[in-house]
Amino acid sequence: MLIETLEAGRAVVVVGSGRRADVVVSGLGGVGKSQLAARHAWSVWSDTELDLAVWVSALSRDAVVTAYAEAAARVLIEQDPQIADRPPEDAARLFREWLATTSRRWLVVLDDVQDPADLRGLDPPPGAGGQVVLTSRRRDVGLGRGGHRVIELDVFAPDQALSYLTEALAGTTSSADREQWQRLAEELGWLPLALSQAAAYLADQPLLTVTAYRAMLADWRRTLTDLTPPEHTLPEHQATVAVTWSVSIDRADRIGDPARPRGAGLARRLLEIAALLDPNGIPHDVFTVQPMLDFLTTLAGRPVAPDDVYDGLTRLHRFNLITLILDRPARAVAVHALVQRAVRDTLTSGHLHHLAHTTANALLAAWPASEIFSRDLVQALRSTTTALHLHTIPALLTPTLHDVFDRVGGSLSFSGQIQAATTYWRTLHDHACTHLGLGHPVALTIRRQLAFLLNEAGDRVGAVAGLEALLADRLRVLGPEHPDTLPTRHGLARWRGEAGDTTSAIADYESLLAEVQLTTSHDFHALVVMRRGIIHWQHWRHGAHVGDPADAVAAFEVLLADLLQGSSPDELSTMHIRRELANWRGRAGDPARAVTELESLLAEVPHVQNPDNPIAFAIRRKLAGWRGEAGDRAGAVAGYEALLLDQLRDPGPDPDHPDILTTRHKLARWRGEAGDTAGAVAEFEAVLPDQLRVLGPDHPNTLNTRSNLDRWRNALEQEGVDTET
What domain of life does the UniProt record list for this protein's source (predicted)? Predict the structure, then answer.
């Protein structure tokens, strides 16, 4: 069958095999469906036993009827001398009936079928001596009915693409360009039509190197049309890449069946959105969250529901403009990168700006509240956001930095990918400086994130220096009253404390508190944050408490009482203070009460967040630790074991998440405290390589694990000595 052509690189003659071997070749416009069918037809035509071959450009029902009528006029003239004068529909019907009954060998190629409905009553019936080859950009289920075998034709494999370019460019470029050919093929998505037209363009420009052509291709100011040969130089019946897909988009977007109009008019808009995102796969929820539905409703001039969107995506899938991968919801919508480029070329700057902000809002709305159980989805959202930014620079940098960037950067930091987060923010900073200027408020905002990452990586002195420089620039550019200046001063106060300069930290917090109190409409939450910072750094230095912890307990009790007067006890800010108060009770020598208060707090978590939220996990982690400090060491081990199981359960948690690494560290410690020294050593030995890989060798958590591993190894060696003696 024709499938063997794909596998062995040759056409296989199946006419006269005694059974139908009908084939449907489906695929994206430009993958070479017609070329494959033509190759097969020419091979079959060399068979002396073949009596008839008909090639039909099946762009419409009228085109098929006309081709059948012309074939009937040639084939049936002896049986019906008046056949040429009959109405085309009648002649086509007679030709179809002849195909069904004749003993002669025949081949009918229906090329580029636009709509399966166009073939109703015209698709050749089963015949012992015939074969139908049908090509279509569509992949409707109906195309495979009636015994047709469906071949999904994809792009070239990388080695096939390289072989094609090597042959096509032979004599026009140096064989030393082989690596450049490989990269060009990859950048064109290994699409045969695009490779063909790129090769033709290069052949027509003898002074143009492949490297220079790739640079032109990477220049988003050029369209694909700019990089293809003039239309009059293309082979007959071959359209440019952009024109080839525009036909499919128009078809996908039309009403078609009046009984199923739901996705009509939405397909093009959905493809415009997909064209801005990750070609390897986009979460389907991005297309159905409320910001996107509101946007589509405005464009469509009618209410748009998720079902309408699903129908629009299905239309695009039918025409091979996207691929729906239903068993991979985090990457459910994939689209060829060159299709994306062709669609982006059609967007005006104003529409692109609007699309960028709408899509960024949709990505935020699709982001899960808890990332720990949504690793695949979060990774897809991060890569999709990056693609959106790169395709729309500088839209999401103006008028302010879009919140989706904070979500991506925070997600990378939260998952422990500090180096990746640093690279991410540095790239954004470069873009902001290039497009907006070094002193632009957006560039300053990004510098704050970079300073934060220095602190996360353990370079607290570097973080303080970065924030000091940033604060000076913000005061100079924005002034002391600007809303962005206060968070910078707050961050500087906190990180001075983290760096060991608690005196400066306390002074900074006290100064901030005094300024907030002087404002006529002071922010109650800001007051709480400042007071909390003062209490914390008055009693905590270099990872240990200083002075009398009972003083910290008393101060947090007063802060909690004040907070409860202004907000609900179930609010997150209140829960943070209650958790900190419980911790200080434990440090003050009352671990049993710390356990009681944390148990009470944990019971209230469902009122605020899902119990699987990291807040609940943080409370459980502290709770297990204070149980151990209260004397229930076995209970501490059990608590950490249960917590780790919950953190690692389905669906798809990230085992490298810093919170999970912390739980493993705590579990190892309490195994040792509970008497299982060997178990502690084994746990520490298991978690240390993961911390080295994820956090790096200089991260405080990694250093802490090294220290504990040495401690418990020494204890294990001592146990060995005791046993021997």
Answer: Bacteria
Give helix 441-456 / helix 418-435 axis angle, nearest 10°.
160
Run of H or E residues at 204: helix 192-204
The CATH number of the domain covering residues in 2-152: 3.40.50.300
**pLDDT tens digits for 596-640?**
999 999 988 765 455 556 678 889 999 999 999 999 999 999 999
Which candidate, 259, 236, 247, 254, places its Cα nearest to that of 321?
Answer: 247
**Residue ranges per domain, the chain?**
2-152, 158-233, 348-611, 632-724
**Which strands sit side by side in the sheet containing 23-26, from one edge to the other?**
52-57, 106-113, 130-136, 23-26, 149-152
Query: Distance between CA 561 and CA 576 in Å, rounded?
Result: 13
**CB-neighbour burial class of residue 410 (10 A; exposed 0-12, middle 13-18, buried 19+):** middle
Q: How many CA atoms lie within 13 A of 409 on its CB side?
A: 24
Please check whether the two domains, 2-152 and 348-611, share a CATH topology: no
**Which CB contacts under 8 angstroms, 24+ apart, belong to 447-456?**
447/473, 448/487, 448/488, 448/491, 449/406, 449/409, 449/425, 450/422, 450/425, 450/426, 451/491, 451/495, 452/413, 452/491, 453/413, 453/418, 453/421, 453/422, 453/425, 455/495, 455/498, 456/413, 456/418, 456/421
The token pair at 706 is: 């090294």
Amino acid at position 493, single letter: A
**CA angle, residues 192, 194, 199, in degrees to nearest 5:** 95
Tens digit of each residue's pLDDT (9 = 90 or more) over 341-382: 889 989 999 999 999 999 999 999 999 987 766 878 999 999
Picking from 22, 122, 106, the residue whose alpha carbon sits closest to that of residue 62 is 122
Instruction: Report the alpha-carbon distance of residue 473 to residue 447 in Å, rounded.
Output: 11
Cα gap 556→578, rounded to integer Å: 8
Q: How far apart are CA 18 and CA 130, in angstroms?
A: 9
DSSP string computed for 246-270: HHHHHHHHS--STT--TTTTTHHHH
CATH code assigned to 632-724 = 1.25.40.10
CATH class for the region spanning 348-611: mainly alpha
* DSSP conformational letter for 156: P
In sequence order, the β-bridge partners of residue 136 are 26, 113
